[in-house]
Write a structure and sequence with these properties.
By secondary structure, this protein is an alpha/beta fold. The chain has a single domain, classed as 3-Layer(aba) Sandwich (Rossmann fold), CATH 3.40.50. The chain has seven helices and eleven strands. The strands form five sheets. It has a three-stranded parallel beta sheet with strand order 1-3-8, with helices on both faces. Strands 2-11 form a two-stranded antiparallel sheet. Helix 1 packs parallel to helix 2 and helix 3 crosses helix 5.
């Protein structure tokens, strides 16, 4: 279905503009100091999930070229809802007294509402061949420092394990910023929102992002 369904959709709706969600996992882990992968970088994913996402992109790209379907590929990294996301994972670990692995030392996050807004606006940019756009927050967040701040807000010191690797799964959003501007909700505000939600016992979806996984085995 990873390959068949996207191809059939592009064929059936060849006259439509389509935004297809992909993931930043199509990129390899990159040096932290570089700031993140760019849309023009070679795709070199790790693990079955990431390879399946590359396969979906390739099928969509081929269908776009052959059918003329106008398409935008949104490579999304870590959208945050109060019930789900990297920040929720970290806060939940802190509240439960569970250890937090910091070997994946840095992440990008974006408020789900901002991710949705950028995806909708990407409809106007759909083209054949497709346009790929990294969608995430512009800040490179330290997992260690984020955990410490959440711990302060929650009144519980985080249990941190491991040490930061020199590479991480990060995306550069220069293109998205030039097209859409900055997200309306900053990571600082997101951290405050998530801490307040978790402290009040707000509902959660119970679906871990597994952001700390470094070998692609989710």
């Amino acid at each position: 279905m990873t390959g068949c369904a996207p191809s059939l959709i592009c064929r059936k709706y060849r006259q439509s503009r389509i935004v297809a969600f992909s993931t930043g996992n199509v990129y390899p882990l990159g040096p932290v100091h570089r700031g993140g992968s760019h849309e023009g970088d070679a795709l070199s994913p790790q693990g079955e999930y990431a390879w399946a996402c590359v396969a979906r992109e390739r099928v969509l790209e081929n269908a776009s070229r052959t059918e003329g379907t106008k398409l935008s590929l949104v490579r999304l990294n870590y959208a945050v809802d109060l019930r789900y996301g990297v920040l929720v994972d970290i806060a939940q670990h802190i509240a439960a007294g569970e250890p937090i692995d910091v070997s994946m030392g840095y992440v990008n996050v974006i408020w789900q509402g901002d991710a949705n807004a950028q995806a909708i606006r990407a409809l106007t940019l759909a083209s054949s061949p497709p346009l790929a756009i990294n969608v995430t927050g512009p800040e490179r967040l330290s997992v260690r420092e984020t955990a410490k701040r959440l711990g302060t807000l929650l009144g519980t010191a985080p249990r941190l394990e491991g040490s930061e690797a020199r590479d991480a799964l990060l995306s550069d959003t220069s293109l998205a910023q030039s097209l859409f501007g900055l997200p309306t909700v900053s990571s600082d505000v997101l951290i405050d929102w998530v801490a307040s939600w978790v402290a009040r016992g707000g509902t959660r979806l119970g679906k871990a992002t597994k952001f700390e996984v470094r070998d692609g085995r989710f």
